Amino acid sequence: MIDHLDKQTVDLFQTAKRGRGRPVTGQAMTNAERQKRYRQSLKIKTVTVTNNQDTDDTDWQSRAHAIQSELDTLRDYLTRLEGCVDRRNTIISDLRGEMALIKSQLSQLKGQLTKCRNENRLLRSKIQHLELQADVNKL
C-alpha cells in the first residue's frame, strides 16, 4: 500500500510521459534527401524532343498522303453530318410550327370549355330555381 503522505519514495512502475508535438516515426527525410527526391521528380517530368534527320522523303510523302486521305475521309464525314444536322433543323422548325398551331387550338378549346362550364352553371342554377318554384307551387 502507498503512503500518500510520503513524498520521497517513487513509484516502481511510472508511466512514461508522452512528449509534445507529432510522434517520431523514424522515417523522416533530411533536407538533402528531400531536395534530391524533388530534383529527380523534375527530371522525370521534363519532355525531351529528339529530331531524327535520318528519315527519307518518301517516308514523309507517304505520311503526308495518309494524312491527306484521312483528312478527305473526315471532310466527307463532316459533310454528311452537316446534311443530317440540316435535316434535323428543318424537322425541328416544322415541329415548332405544329406546336404553335396546337397551342393556339388548345387555347381556343380552353376558351370554349370555360364558356361551356359557365353555361352549364347557369343552366344548373336555372334548373334549381325552377325545381324550387315547382316545390312551392305544389304546396
TrEMBL record:
UniProt keyword list? Coiled coil
Recorded coiled-coil stretches = 92-133
Keyword Coiled coil listed: yes
The entry's protein name is Uncharacterized protein
Native species? Methylomicrobium album BG8
